[in-house]
Amino acid sequence: MKFVDSARVVVKAGDGGNGCVSFRREKYVPKGGPDGGDGGRGGHVFLRANAQLSTLLDLRYRKQYEAGRGTHGQGSRKAGKNGKDVVIQVPCGTLVKERGTGKVLCDLTEDAEEVLIAHGGKGGRGNPHFTTSTRQAPRYAEPGGSGEKLDLELELKLMADVGLVGFPNAGKSTLISVMSAAKPKIADYPFTTLVPNLGIVRYGEYKSFVMADIPGIIEGAAEGRGLGLQFLRHIERTRALAVLVACDGEDPAAEYRLLLKELERFEPSLLMKPRVIVVTKTDIAAADFTLPDFGDQAPVLAVSSVTGAGVDGLRDELWKQLNPVS
User: Fold this and answer.
1) Which of 60, 66, 145, 321 could form a disulfide with 122, with the two C-beta atoms 3.0–4.6 Å apart?
2) Where are the stretches annotated Disordered (predicted)?
C-alpha cells in the first residue's frame, strides 16, 4: 500500500429540515390549532481514529464528504428524520487543521477516538412553537439551519517510541530490520528509504517498543530540501531519538552536529527528547578506529547490524531511555 501522510478534504454537515406550517383538520373540528412538525437535524461529520489504518491514501482519492440533510416536518406534529451522519476513518496520529487559518481542530492519537468535526444544522420548528395569546393560528414555521462546511488539512505523524535519525546510507533500514520484524528496502545507495517504516522491537519476554525508520536527513531538510518536511514531522511524536552516524564517514562528530542543527531548525523541542548516539557499520571500521568525542552527554554505542555486535546493548539503552528510573 502506498504511504500517504497528508491529505486535504472538504466536509459538509447536513442542513436541517424545515419546520412545517399545518393546521389540524378533523371532522367536527372546524378550527383546529396548528400542528406542524419540526424538521429533522442535519447529519454530523465525525472523524474516527482506526489503528488498522496506516496511511491517508483513501482521502487522497475522495476529497469531499457530505452528511445527509434532515427531512422536513409534516402535519399532525410529525417530526422530520435526522440526516445520516458521516464517519471518516483516519489512522491514529492524524492531526487535523483548518485550511487557511492553520488552526488545529483535533489530534487523534488513540484507537476508536472520535471527534465531531462538523455539526449538522438544527431542524426548523413547526408553527405550533409560534402560538401566542394574540396569535392562535401562526402561518409561519422556522427554516432548517445550515450544516457546517470546513476545508480540512490532515497530517499523519507516526506513533512511534523511538525515531531513527541520520544521513542517507547511515544504516537505519538495516538496523531496524535486525532489531524488529520490519522489512524495509535496503541497498547501498542514498535514499533507499522513501517512506517511514515502523518496527516492533521485542524486549524481554513481554515488553516491546515501536521504532520508526525515517528517510535520511540532508543539510537544509528543515527548509524542505530533499524529502524535508515530508518526514521530519514524524519525529515529533517519538519519545526518544537514536541518532545514527556511520563510522566510515569523513567526520562523524561533524555529521552529528549537523543532524542536531537540522532538528533544531525544524522544531527546537526535538533536542529536549532523550537521545542515543549510534555509531554504525563498525564491521568495516579501520583497525585503529576509536569512537570520536561528540561533545554531548548522550550515551554513545557502537553497533554492527551485519555481525550483530552491540545490537543487544543498544536495545537495552533504548529501553532505559524510554523507561527512566524515577
Assistant:
1) 145
2) 119-146
